[in-house]
Design a protein that fits this description.
- Helix content is 0%, strand content 50%.
- The protein is built from no helices and eleven strands.
- Strand 7 and strand 8 form a beta hairpin.
- The model has no long low-confidence stretch (mean pLDDT 94).
């Protein structure tokens, strides 16, 4: 299983970014994003079950972030809006054979994840 996140960068507060994650070698049906800021623990951000398109979000991103998947392109997206400096972190995409809800919002515990992409929110 290989996952590669991209799309990060520097954005001003209130701005938007869309992260992409290309997936290969996976037949799993659950994909997630998690992040890690300097000096902080990893935290789950969002999760999607591709079988029923159910989506899950951590409270701190609800209403701001949207997760989606393009099965034809084997790509998972994270649209991030209304970004604030607290969103600054390295963002990772991950996959797992178990459904999103099994982990609560601890999707950073997913078994497979790849290199992350840096998101910096600063003026």
């Amino acid at each position: 299983v290989q996952l590669q996140a991209s799309g990060g960068g520097l954005v001003q507060p209130g701005g938007s970014l869309r992260l992409s994650c290309t997936v290969s070698g996976s037949s799993f049906e659950n994909y997630a994003w998690f992040r890690q800021a300097p000096g902080r623990e990893r935290e789950g951000v969002s999760c999607i079950s591709t079988t029923d398109e159910k989506t899950y979000y951590a409270d701190f991103v609800k209403g701001r972030f949207i997760i989606s998947r393009d099965n034809a392109k084997n790509t998972v997206y994270l649209q991030m809006n209304s970004l604030n400096p607290e969103d600054t972190a390295v963002y990772y995409c991950a996959t797992d054979p178990f459904p999103c809800y099994r982990y609560g919002s601890d999707w950073h515990r997913f078994d497979y994840w790849g290199r992350g992409t840096q998101v910096t929110v600063s003026s």
